[in-house]
Fold these 2 entries.
Entry 1:
Amino acid sequence: MTDRIFNFGAGPGVLPEPVLEEAQRDLMALPGVGMSVMEISHRSKTFEEIIGGCEADIRRLAGVSPDYQILFLQGGASLQFSMAPMNLLSSGGKADYIVTGSWGKKAVKEAQKVGTVQIASTTEPDSFTRIPEQSELKLDSAAAYVHFTSNETIQGVEWNREPETGSVPLVCDASSDIFSRPIDVSKYGLIYAGAQKNLGPSGVTLVILRKDLLERVPKNLATMLDYKVQAESKSLFNTPPVFGVYVMRLVMKWLLAEGGLEGMGRKNAEKAKLLYDAIDSSGGYYRPHAKAADRSNMNVTFRLPSEDLEKKFVSEAKASRLDGLKGHRSVGGIRASIYNAFPKAGVEALVDFMKRFQASNG
Ligand code: PMP
């Protein structure tokens, strides 16, 4: 695999090499099946084993109890911005949203089309550099749910605890940090994540939903947008994204083999520390976007002394086989996404590059 570079892209992000190798090896014909996964019926025994195996591995990995439904849907996390309120916010109801970055804002915009959204807290006045304290949250005990974004991919701020919401169900967009560390699923009503960062390729969205919440689903929702229909048909109401589910299955196997979420959490913290230490020891040359306590272990965002230097940094890094480092246009600067499958060697290579760059452009 000598021609693979270090991919710091925010998503679709890097996938584990053993997963790519297995998918490549079995692409022409799944062992014992004689066809590729993209060519078999989604109602076949083979696919049933793939999707069932994926679900079982997710349950094992994250300790998901039978009280929760696991769904494999399409439309990305963006469709969940709409589906969550459509299914869980009854007419006349209201929901609390905690906004810590650009994705949380997008979730609010869609929910507002469905019902009443109350902003329980927003850190926008602080340019989304931090996570609010529990005491800052204006929570309504009559809200249908509380929504938050566990990791803001663009700003690089991450919750290191859950907001406490009492008996109000917690709804989480975990797209960019799902399964990057241990998670207590029992604290949540709904967790959703587009697959293309920590779970697999784009095109499949993982939804973990507490089953009692299905009782809230209103009648006459568009069939494909109805969690109840998707749950009753075990994500097979229509043709699911078979290749995406297959790759997700391989990623779950890889995660289990890598020591599960505990193992992943340790490795991710170690990788992020290397990078933040390099930023913090640069004498202010590299300036982190997020407040130290709320920094993301997945998306490391920082600035250089000028935009010209940032451009130079990105292009010279790319020439050194460190790709995908340009920050999101709304924040600027540099963003190094170091998801589960991103190797420690790549972080070390970036740290070396940063030192060399500062020495010649300081
Ligand atoms: N939420 C977060 C936190 C994200 O990072 C993204 C994608 N970058 C989305 C939602 C939107 O996901 P999708 O493209 O799957 O709709």
Entry 2:
Amino acid sequence: MSQPWSPGSWRSRPIQQQPRYADEAAVERALARVKGLPPLVAPGEIDALRQQLARAARGEAFVLHGGDCAERFVDCAPEPIEAKLKILLQMSLVLTWGARIPVVRVGRLAGQYAKPRSSDTEVVGGVTLPSYRGDHVNGIEPTAAAREPDPERLVAAYFHSAATLNYARALLDGGFADLHKPHHWNLGFVRSATHRAEYEALVARILDALAFVELAGVRSAAFETVDLYSSHEGLLLAYEEAQTTERDGRYYNTGAHMLWIGERTRELDHAHVEYFRGVENPVGVKLGPTAAPDDVLRLLDVLAPDDAPGRVTLITRLGAGRVDAALPPLVEAVRASGRTVVWSCDPMHGNTTKTADGTKTREVDRVLAELRDTLAVHDRLGTTLGGVHFELTGEDVTECVGGPQELGEADLARRYDTTCDPRLNYAQSLEMAFLLARRLQARRAGAAEPPLR
Ligand code: PEP
Ligand code: CO
């Protein structure tokens, strides 16, 4: 595409999934306020993440991308942020140790407040209301007043993102991830004795290795902290535009390190692709089972005309049972084009089901099946799965069925907290990391493929 780009050039394109506000002047005032506030992340950090993702594209690192489906403003509080950080750190430790590969941590946090919806309205208690579109847009309460898009939420989203990111950075700077402090790595409420034992053995071996390395005179800040990058779906383009800053002739979205384009907004000539082609940030693109290989190649032409590794992550979310048919044509087309992308697997969004009473859930076994089949396809085709993308939480919620606690549908009501999609809880997430680590370890050793279960 040779037309000139500007942070607002998306405005002349068709656009999906945007709220309709009653008071446009109030929206403009809110956006002007956001535009005047300081960046949440630095361009140098964004460049650093691109370098990390370039390594993942070459198979030299593995991306762990995870967090809430929809962050809520009320979760901008110490415990939920600590829990989220902790599960991401613990999973990355398991993956690093098991797979002997550096793990790039990207949180769905500090800005994941806007949601695409399949319908503009929903029926709650017999009343038809506008759909909840995330705290960035409207309130979850089932009243017409709460569901009215509120421009003030554009400003509130910035401040909640800032407070979340600030606390995450403070925790990491303050030693939250210090490998010398094993209590930071304890198993919380994992009930499975096997998993607890396996994890404790792993921590003991790491501390042993650390003691040896330091005895040998090696001191590294790398043992004391880790990098964590922020990300969210770049859905509300007016907000994203307000977060866009020019630096030495290049444009950065300084609201998050990484952003992704959702399955519902990746149309080639539409607004979202137009916006993202002009910013330096690494960009993810979700690919559902209907993604056509040609469309994906054209998306890459637009988003990464120079094929810079690390620029685009293709996140497949096909659904268990669909991977064998849908993934090979995509992988083969990209490979044949000679392009370098990070292949990531989101085994959540193709596996959402509803219980008889209408509760959204996901079966851990189907999540695992999609992951297993995706790994197998990449192995068969000689490409590399460079990362995974999960909806998860560090808390002991009951939203997905199965896993080490063997949650059933009857358990869902016990602690169903998500305002959007069901997330893996702490124990389910950690189990996922163990299984994945074992699988990646075997890949590294060139061993026969072990089952994921
Ligand atoms: C999401 O990641 O929460 C999401 C809505 O995903 P997708 O665009 O893949 O449906
Ligand atoms: Co979701």
